[in-house]
Structure formats: structure tokens, C-alpha cells
Design goal:
Helices cover 61% and strands 12% of the residues of chain A. The longest helix of chain A has 32 residues. The radius of gyration of chain A is 31 Å and the shape is elongated. The two termini of chain A are 52 Å apart. The mean pLDDT of chain A is 82. Chain B is mostly helical. Classes of the chains: A alpha+beta, B mainly alpha.
Chain lengths: 365, 387
């Protein structure tokens, strides 16, 4: 019985470990690669930073000196093979060494290689420098030639993302908190109808609004400004924010509020002095969700911030980079990690709020 | 809560009632309008200044957030200084009005406006015409856009792909989420393993696309593979392929895009399932074990049925989510190689091809597909007695 339990524990932890490894490999590969030299990235897998066995040349022989005839079967160091076989590499019978012909038939050389444990630890911060700063960087074109182009200046995009995300988080929460209080603690005609409107709008896909809002923005000359995207995120996030904050605020203990009203406090005072401080958990959860949503958003930025390179946010800049230099992994991996940095900090620092916020916000339209 | 602000309007005359409603409407609309105007003016000023960008950024943030907060304060102050009766009538609209006005502008009206646009050709209804003139114009095409959606080959392809997204994306996320939740629940490493599975939720779709592009990276067969998937395949003697861009296996190359979202969404499913599993009473599980059920039977016969409600919720959420999937496809393949979905077609038609009529029709179809959920939400809400 005890033995069976142990196998069970091993089975459970083993499967779990396997899943966790599978889930982590993609991110780990990106993270490791972003610190690797750009030639290394192109020529060896990122997993070679872990200890592994690699063929290493220990001696070089000249076939001419050995008097070998490359057109027939040759014998070197105890192995036999034709030129074609040698070019592929022939392992010695004990498997420790390998004979490889390098170069062409007439001018080539023979290398004797042995397997040894190595790690490819040629780490560098150059990729980040190139991606973040405005300095020049080298990209490889499809035909293998290289080109020097201006830097990606992702630090500007990072600032833009902050400028977009902070107001796009605070403004809707502020407006929604006022509305949630109004719905929860004030009586007015049309209250029920208006709240039903909000519930109905919860799942409406935002695609429905892009074309009309874009034409409004054109008429107002707002296209490509931060104000445009703040308002858009406010509009698209407001239904959910109001709904969630209402659910929280309406369950606050009524005795607290009643005594405040008896003391002669106005609605505004109760709201700012009492309700807002009491609602911090709900506000924080939603703030994290909204912040990540805005930070990670691509579609709304694409439509409303448009093509002005000075205003682009990190997701846009990264998507542009995948289009322009799809194979320059030293830039893409570092760029991707720059976009992920802030969300990951939030994730590790505020995990509980983070989880709660994402769960609450998952129904967003 | 009802006692606080009972507004008795039965004694009012018709004229006064009308006036009250007019004032409420004005309050609701005027706050956002003034807020907008003030912030807008500040923005034009900022745009034309040549201060360093970080400075402009900070000023913009303070200006935008502070402006909105100030307006609530100012308007509340004004309304509170009115005679009591008017103050009581109008104050709720200071609180609720701006939210409603913004929602109407950004979501409610666009539903109608997009539907209207979807009845016209690529340039929309002719400018400066009233409804009746627009309906008689050449550009009025009626339901032709909708007919095109269901007959054009590329659109049919996107519907098929979206169906694959919905079926495989939601099923795999739910299954993996359940398995991880169940395993983690009986492991000592619950916290750390759940954290690591949940971590991809923090990553943007664009970032995830780069990550998985790198996973699927393909090099010619005679060179070392730097993408994980191809390296594994080659190590087992297979040939390298550009997985998600592999047209020969279409439509199954979509699965390689779907995996990305499964990777992102499993953490979400896991957290919800984990909570639900923990709430099953230990006594029931123990009773089943005493009766001789093994762990797998307990899982399938007792746990799954008891958390069925959560499973359905998670499933629906991921279905809605995959229905609108855009970023992953757009960044990974741009819709090439037979991977277009409804949302990428919407973007392509509306903003690349600039065919607003057709694009709007696609958006309306997207809306129609979520209507069942919308109705369900409203019914749930109406059952809440509290409101």
C-alpha cells in the first residue's frame, strides 16, 4: 500500500513537472536568447547554454601529406570511408572521436574531433542596447547580406506605452467608481434601465465601434493622439469597470454609510472619504487588469494611434519589428522581453491582485 | 439604500418634469463634453510644444487624469449649491451621467451606426444626405455585404478557421487547465507550479507571437535548427517544417496558432478550476474512496460533475475570447497560408482594403454570434432581486 502511494506521488509530481517545463520552455528560450550574441543565436540553439556534448577539433591533418586518394576509399586513424562519407563525418568504432573532411575534394583538410562537455556562454547586453537606444544596429537580410540601420529606440515606445496605459487605467476607474456609487447608493428615475444597458454592453465586441469612432476622430482631428486612445480605452473598459465596481460597492455595509449621512455628510464626501478607501481591493484588481489589457493591447493602438512612429507603443513597435526583420532574433527576443518586462514585474509583485483582476476581467468584450 | 434619496416627483407638473429631465440630460452630457474640450485644448498645446518627450508625457498624464477628476469636483460643487430639490434630482446624474454618455458614444451608438454602414458599399452612405436620400443612393446595397460574407471563399475560410479556434482552443485550454489544477492540488509544489503555468497570462499576444515564432523557427535541413520544435523533430530523424506557415497541411497549420492561445489561457482555466476543486467537500471524496473508487474514477465521476458549472463558465469565456482572436494571427502569419479568421478579415476589409461597408457587416456578424451570451447575462441580472 505504501509503495503504491509513492508511485502515485511520483506520477503526479512528474507529470506536473513535465507540464511546467513545457509551459516554461518558450519564455525561457526567449529570455536566454535575448542575452546571446547575434551570431550565436543564428548558428546554435539557445539550449546550448546548458552543459552539452559538442564535437571539438583536436587535430587537423592534410590529406595530401597522408597521400590519400579522395576519389576512392580512404583509411585515416583507424576508420575507412569515401569522400562523401567523410564529409558527413565518420565516428570511430569506440564513438569517442570523429573524422570529418572539411572543404572540397582537392583542397580540403581532415579534422579529428572529440566530444567534450561545453556550454555556450557568450552573453551580451548589446541586443538590449540596440533595441532600446537610438544607436545603429546591424540586421541580416534574407540573402545573407548585412545592413546597418538606425536603432529601434524602444525606450521611446516604452514611454509612449506608459503615457497610454496610465491614464487609460485611471480615467475609466475614476468614472466607473462614480457611476458604481451612483447606481449602488442613489435613487433616481431610469436607474434600472441604465444599469441594464451597462450589463448588455459587457460582451459587445469592440470591433463594432472601430469604424464609427475612427470617423468621429477624423472629424475632430484626434487621430493619432494619446487623447484618442485614452478615450477609446475608457469607452471600451467602462462597462466592465462599472459592473465590477458596482458589485463590490453595493455590498459594502450600509450601517457605515447611514451613520455618515446622519452626521450630515454629502454624497461626494461619503464617496471620496469612505467608499473609495473601502474599495481599494476591488479598485486594485480592476486597475491591474485594465493596465495589463491596455499595455498588451495591439488592435486599438493600431487603429487609433496609426502610423506616426513617434507615438507608437511597445506592442506596435514589436509587431513592426517582426515584419521588418523576421529573422533577426537578437533584436526580436530583446524587443519582446522589453515589452514583457512591466507585466512580469506586476505579475511577480502583485500576484494575488493580478490573478483576481484577470479572472474578473476575463469577460471583457 | 433606497431610503437615502427618495425623489418624489408625483406632485410635479408635466412642465417641471420635462425641465427636470432636460437638466439631467444636460448634466450627463455636459461633463464629458467640457472634460473633453479642456483636455483637448491642453493636448493641442502639448503637441505643438517642443519640450522633451518624457516631460510632455508626464504633463499629459497629469493633465488628462487631473482634468477628469477636477470636473467631477466642480460640477458636484455647482449641483450641491442648487436648491435642495434640484440638487437631489441632479446629483445622481453628476455621478452616473458621464459613464453613460461615454458608453453610449463608444459602444451603444456604434452598434446602430455600424449596422447602418453595413448596408452600403465601400465608401458608406453619401455625405450630406438624409436617411431617405441615402437609401435611394447608388451606394445602398442592402444585404449584399452579408450575402458576400457567406459566399466569398476567403470569408468561408475564416469561418472554418474560427470554428477550429473555438473547438480546439477552448477544449484544449479547459482540458489542460483541469489536469494542471487536479495535479497541483495534490502536489507539494502547488504554488510554484501554478505560478509558472499562469505566467503566460502576463504576456501580450504580440510578445507571445514572437516567442512562438522563435519556437517554430525553421532553418534549411543542412543547418542546425535554432527553433525548439524543429530541433526536436530533426533529432528524431524528421524533416524541419515552418509549422504555422506550412500550407501543405492547411487547415491543420491553424493548430500551431491555436497552441499559442492554449498556452496563454490554460492558466486562466487552471485558477478557476483549482478554486472549484478545493470547494468540493472532502467527505464526499473520502466516501467514494472508501467505497473502492480509484483516483481516476473519483476525478471523472465526482469532481467533474460537481464543478460542471465552472467548466461551462470557463468554456464560454474562452469561446467568446477565441471568437475575437486577432493579434496572434495578424502578427504570426498576417492571415496568409490559409489562417485568416473573422477578426483579421474585419481589420483587413475595414482598414487595409478600406471597404467600410463589408468590414461593418463582418463586425455585425461578430456581434450576432455573442448575442446568446448577452441574453444570458441579462437574464442572470434580472434574476438578481437586489437591484
Amino acid at each position: 500500500m505504501k509503495g503504491r502511494n509513492w508511485t502515485g506521488v511520483w506520477l503526479i509530481n512528474g507529470t506536473l513537472l513535465l507540464l511546467v517545463i513545457i509551459w516554461s520552455i518558450p519564455t525561457l528560450g526567449l529570455f536566454v536568447s535575448s542575452f546571446r550574441d547575434r551570431f550565436e543565436i543564428q548558428t546554435s540553439g539557445w539550449w546550448t547554454v546548458f552543459p552539452h556534448k559538442e564535437w571539438e577539433t583536436v587535430a587537423v591533418l592534410d590529406p595530401k601529406e597522408l597521400g590519400l586518394d579522395a576519389t576512392g576509399v580512404m583509411a585515416v586513424e583507424g576508420v575507412q570511408g569515401t569522400f562523401e562519407e567523410m564529409r558527413e563525418g565518420i565516428a570511430s568504432p569506440d564513438g569517442d572521436t570523429r573524422i570529418t573532411w572539411v572543404g572540397n575534394r582537392r583542397l580540403g583538410r581532415i579534422e579529428i574531433q572529440q566530444q567534450s562537455w561545453t556550454v555556450n556562454w557568450d552573453f551580451t547586453l548589446d541586443n538590449y542596447k540596440q533595441v532600446l537606444m537610438g544607436t545603429e544596429l546591424v540586421i541580416t537580410k534574407a540573402d545573407g547580406s548585412e545592413e546597418v540601420i538606425p536603432g529601434q529606440d524602444m525606450s521611446q515606445a516604452f514611454l509612449n506605452s506608459l503615457a497610454v496605459a496610465i491614464p487609460s487605467t485611471i480615467i475609466p476607474i475614476l468614472i466607473a467608481a462614480f457611476a458604481a456609487y451612483g447606481f449602488a447608493w442613489m435613487k433616481f428615475p431610469g436607474r434600472r434601465m441604465l444599469f441594464i444597458l451597462i450589463v448588455g454592453l459587457l460582451v459587445v465586441p469592440l470591433q463594432i465601434a472601430l469604424v464609427p469612432i475612427l470617423s468621429d476622430y477624423k472629424a475632430l482631428g484626434l487621430n493619432g493622439t494619446f487623447l484618442a486612445i485614452w478615450l477609446a480605452h475608457t469607452g471600451f473598459g467602462l462597462a466592465l469597470a462599472t459592473y465590477l465596481l458596482f458589485n463590490y460597492i453595493s455590498t459594502l455595509p450600509r450601517e457605515t454609510l447611514e451613520s455618515a449621512f446622519i452626521d450630515g455628510a454629502s454624497h461626494f464626501t461619503v464617496f471620496t472619504r469612505l467608499i473609495l478607501p473601502l474599495s481599494v481591493p476591488a479598485l486594485a484588481s480592476f486597475a491591474i487588469f485594465q493596465f495589463l489589457w491596455v499595455w498588451n493591447d495591439y488592435l486599438i493602438a493600431l487603429v487609433f494611434l496609426g502610423a506616426d512612429p513617434n507615438n507608437k507603443v511597445v506592442t506596435q513597435r514589436l509587431a513592426d519589428m517582426t515584419g521588418t526583420f523576421g529573422n533577426d532574433w537578437h533584436l526580436l527576443t530583446a524587443g519582446a522581453f522589453v515589452t514583457m518586462l512591466l507585466p512580469l514585474i506586476v505579475f511577480f509583485a502583485l500576484q494575488r491582485y493580478f490573478v483576481r483582476g484577470l479572472l474578473a476581467g476575463s469577460v471583457k468584450g | 439604500m433606497a431610503q437615502f434619496d427618495r425623489v418624489d416627483e408625483s406632485g410635479l407638473s408635466g412642465g417641471a418634469k420635462l425641465l427636470a429631465w432636460l437638466a439631467r440630460f444636460v448634466v450627463a452630457v455636459i461633463i464629458p463634453v467640457i472634460a473633453f474640450a479642456v483636455i483637448y485644448a491642453g493636448f493641442i498645446f502639448l503637441r505643438d510644444s517642443d519640450a522633451p518627450s518624457w516631460f510632455i508625457t508626464i504633463v499629459a498624464i497629469v493633465w488628462g487624469v487631473g482634468g477628469v477628476a477636477m470636473l467631477y469636483w466642480v460640477f458636484n460643487g455647482i449641483v450641491e449649491r442648487l436648491p435642495d430639490q434640484w440638487s437631489q434630482r441632479l446629483q445622481p446624474f453628476v455621478f452616473v451621467g458621464p459613464a453613460i454618455a461615454i458608453l453610449v458614444w463608444y459602444l451603444a451608438l456604434p452598434v446602430v451606426r455600424t449596422f447602418w454602414l453595413s448596408l452600403f458599399g465601400r465608401d458608406g452612405p453619401p455625405a450630406d444626405t438624409n436617411i431617405f436620400q441615402a437609401l435611394q443612393s447608388d451606394t445602398f446595397v442592402g444585404i449584399a455585404n452579408y450575402a458576400a460574407i457567406f459566399t466569398e471563399r476567403l470569408l468561408q475560410e475564416s469561418f472554418r478557421n474560427n470554428l477550429m479556434w473555438i473547438i480546439f482552443g477552448s477544449t484544449l485550454s479547459v482540458v489542460f487547465g483541469l489536469v494542471v489544477a487536479w495535479l497541483a492540488d495534490r502536489s507539494k509544489f502547488e504554488r510554484v507550479s501554478k505560478s509558472l503555468i499562469f505566467l503566460p497570462m502576463a504576456i501580450s499576444f504580440v510578445g507571445a507571437s514572437v516567442i512562438w515564432n522563435f519556437m517554430y523557427e525553421v532553418a534549411p535541413a543542412d543547418q542546425p535548427q535554432i527553433g525548439v520544435l524543429n530541433a526536436i523533430v530533426v533529432a528524431f530523424g524528421g524533416a524541419p517544417h515552418p509549422w504555422d506557415k506550412w500550407v501543405a497541411i492547411a487547415p491543420w497549420n491553424n493548430l500551431f496558432l491555436i497552441i499559442i492561445v492554449v498556452w496563454l489561457q490554460t492558466g486562466f482555466a487552471m485558477v478557476l478550476f483549482s478554486g472549484a476543486l478545493k470547494s468540493i467537500s472532502e467527505e464526499i471524496l473520502e466516501a467514494a474512496r472508501v467505497d473502492g473508487a480509484n483516483e481516476v474514477q473519483v476525478f471523472l465521476r465526482i469532481m467533474i460533475p460537481s464543478i460542471l458549472g465552472t467548466i461551462i463558465t470557463v468554456w464560454t469565456t474562452i469561446v467568446i475570447f477565441t471568437l475575437k482572436i486577432f493579434d496572434v494571427v495578424w502578427v504570426m502569419t498576417g492571415g496568409q497560408f490559409g489562417t485568416h479568421v473573422i477578426a483579421t478579415q474585419f481589420y483587413r476589409q475595414s482598414f487595409t482594403a478600406r471597404n467600410s461597408g463589408f468590414g461593418s457587416a463582418i463586425a455585425i456578424v461578430l456581434l450576432i454570434t455573442v448575442i446568446p451570451v448577452l441574453i444570458y447575462n441579462l437574464r442572470q441580472f434580472r434574476q438578481q432581486e437586489a437591484f
